[in-house]
UniProtKB/TrEMBL annotation:
InterPro entries: AhpC/TSA (IPR000866), Thioredoxin-like_sf (IPR036249), Thioredoxin_domain (IPR013766)
Upper taxonomic lineage: Bacteria, Pseudomonadati, Pseudomonadota, Gammaproteobacteria, Lysobacterales
Protein name from the UniProt record: Alkyl hydroperoxide reductase
Top-level division of the source organism's lineage: Bacteria
Domain Thioredoxin span(s) in chain numbering: 3-174
PROSITE patterns referenced in this protein's UniProt entry, alphabetically: THIOREDOXIN_2
One function term, GO molecular function aspect: oxidoreductase activity
Amino acid sequence: MRLFAPEIAPVLDLVDIHGQAIATSQPGRLTLLSFFRDAACPFCNFRIYELTQRHQELSERGLDVVAVFSASQAEVLRFAGHRPRPFPLAADPTSRAHEVYGIERSLWRKLKAIVTRVPTLIRGLRLVGLAGLNTGNLMPADFLIDGRGRIVEAYYGRDAGDRIPLQRVESLLRQDRNRRAA
């Protein structure tokens, strides 16, 4: 079942791919909790690349990022974690965390992304190789969680490559900063 703002975000017991505990909310900061499909997903790996490139700027503006993959630790290390990332990557091999947050499955929406998002698919395949063609049917989802543990924004992908626009994240960062300043 989908979650909505301003619900309290379900608490997850996550550890990163190096065994360190992960907090999904920090006082005074927003957390982008991103649920990814499996670790070889080309769309997912391209988004990880984008978040890595923008991380310093977004972090300075008050954003923490947590990425959760429906994959084993070894698979996350092989694909998304083969390079150091400035934010934690978590493996969710049983998809339990994905279920708690109401992440959906859809073969149709996966196929839609493959057909309609060819440039992103190609960029992602450059990152993961042909293994990216053999992925599951989970859809992506992003949640912005405030420092009190409340969902500020819940974004369920319309297809396998659909993520919350980073412009929307920036807008919510500005609103949060203005709210705290007032």
